[in-house]
């Protein structure tokens, strides 16, 4: 799990942690959205790359796990009487995806690398939040760490598997972009946002 966090070039800023604790309803709603988006991304890749057997298996498993996580977040929200309202998406993933190359297999490789960074950042945010949360939510986020770390590893393994050449330079490139995305202020607080500036 620490490997997952060390993969990133920066830690979540303390100011974001403070905003998360002040906006726990939004944190949970957007966390639920993130789980659905993660499942959707996995399913879209399965439909687009039907010829890649290992990708099909790994992403099928990942999509199922993400939807189970969504259901668990939704149950916690219901228990806490948090209404599931519509939220605009964070700009985080968009900031990464605008750098995806257009030709195959480079396009797939970039999408898989981005998937690794998104999962690693989720893992890091859960880990960073745990000491500050109530017992129930801390235990829930603790329970997600192992699967999030495995998802990061799966995405990175597939990126290497389907690349036509070593991907170290490309990983380093996206690591810098991911760091910039985390340090770019956002208008609204979200699970993957930078620090919100009101």
Notes on the protein architecture:
This protein is an all-alpha fold and 198 residues long. It has one domain: Ferritin, core subunit, four-helix bundle (Ferritin, Up-down Bundle), CATH 1.20.1260.10. It is built from 8 helices and no strands. The model has no long low-confidence stretch (mean pLDDT 95).
Topology:
Elements: H1 2-6, H2 14-22, H3 24-48, H4 53-79, H5 92-97, H6 106-129, H7 135-162, H8 168-183
Helix pairs in contact: 3-4, 4-7, 6-7, 6-8
CATH C-level: Mainly Alpha
- Unreliable segments (pLDDT under 50, ≥5 consecutive)? none
Shape category: globular
What is the makeup of the main sheet? none
Number of strands: 0
Q: What percent of the residues sit in helical stretches (DSSP H or I)?
A: over 70%
Radius of gyration over all CA atoms, rounded: 16 Å
**H/E topology pattern:** HHHHHHHH
Q: CA-to-CA gap between the ends? A: 33 Å
Topology-level CATH name: Ferritin
Distinct helical segment count: 8
Mean pLDDT over the full residue set: 95
Which features characterize this protein?
198 residues, Ferritin, 8 helices, globular, mainly alpha
What's the quick description here?
By secondary structure, the protein is an all-alpha fold. The protein is 71% helix and 0% strand.
